[in-house]
Amino acid sequence: MNRDKIYEDLDFSPEFSVEDWNSLIELKLTKYFENESVFKENKEILRTEVVNYIRISIKPEYLNLFDWTFDKYIDCLKKDRKKTLEIFANSFHEISNTDMKWMTNVLTQADFHKFSERDKISYFFKIMDETLEGAFNPRFRLFDKIIHFNINNEITNKSNSSFGNIITNFPIEFKEEAQLYLKDPLFSISTNQWRNIASHKSFTIKKNSIDLVYGKSNNHFKNISYGDFYKIIAWTQDIYRSIRLSQVLISLNLIKEILPRLEGKEELKIRFESKLLHIVHNMQIVGFKFISTDKTNSTFGLNVKGKSGHKVSHSLIHASQCLDQLSCAIYDDDFERDNFEYARISIVDDQERKLASATVNIKIALKKAYNEISQDEYLKNMKFEI
Q1: Measuring CA to CA, which residue among 76, 121, 131, 129 is closest to residue 101?
Q2: DSSP 34-57
Q3: Where are the domains of the chain?
Q4: Dihedral class, residue 315 (left if φ above 0, else alpha if ψ from -120 to 50, else beta)
Q5: Which residue, of 15, 87, 121, 178, has the fewest CB within 10 Å?
Q6: pTM of the full predicted structure?
Q7: What is the tens place of the pLDDT at every residue in 114-125?
Q8: HSE-up of 288 (CA within 13 Å, CB side)?
Q9: Is residue 302 within 8 Å of 344, Cβ to Cβ?
Q10: Neighbours of 335 (CB within 10 A)
């Protein structure tokens, strides 16, 4: 996939103001935060995450699953906050890496719309494997650990247990509430078996249906329609969204208490594209429309259309405020850090002709981000072209 396609797909509506977005997240997400100050500190992130919340909430069964999952974390915090923080801290890097894997999957997606139906189904089995194994599995293991702690007040270590074992032996006390995590809603095939079918390619695509073979000791056979297969794909995406968002929101509540427990551990790795997604989304919320990105020599450029009804110079001044965040996003990704020396934001017209730009040395922007230089000194080192 063209990387810009990710940002182009973000909704842009000049009629929906930043105040509207803030009202939306306050209405939908305030209840998931322990106090107002933590909520306000995370408003920029929540403007993106509220989109994921809405995708979940249009399906009541997944909204209920999300709420129930989130409540289990709260129950553990009330039971023993210190031990619950230990569980989250020990899993923090692995869980955070699932977003990197997810973004990698998105960036490497093929244009499946051009595939034949047979090839598209094969491709979506690959997506199923990557979703269930690379993204859902680590997050469900964390949730399983939380559930066991909720029951017996002990931190379990199941690092050597298979995904199938985790699913099969999920505590019976909560199996009914967690059933969408454990098996699909159409055929009641367990989640790990769907992962196995996709990973081992134990399926045969026929002209109007798909034959499945699954089971470790005794093989089971199932024939499903193309339509039901795509419903299963939607289910895998929905359960991942539900468990991911619950963990994102609880982590935002706890992050100040988790970070000190990470001292001495490997630095958190976040893909540049994940951070850029947040930057672009928040810029569109305040009125800028994403147009494209470009790489010129040692400069990474972000091109946006100016705010409606504003002079180009005023739009540029406002847009340039993202350059320290953009520079941090570049620097924090080991695979991008050495590729660029400068970050640039440009105001362009409908034909992508540059009307104005602001450029800054990434190292200077990092000093601004870490409060090592003043705003005045930072601006003196920024090059404006109008």
Answers
A1: 131
A2: SSHHHHHHTHHHHHHHHHHHHHHH
A3: 13-262, 288-385
A4: alpha
A5: 15
A6: 0.78
A7: 899 999 999 999
A8: 28
A9: yes
A10: 9
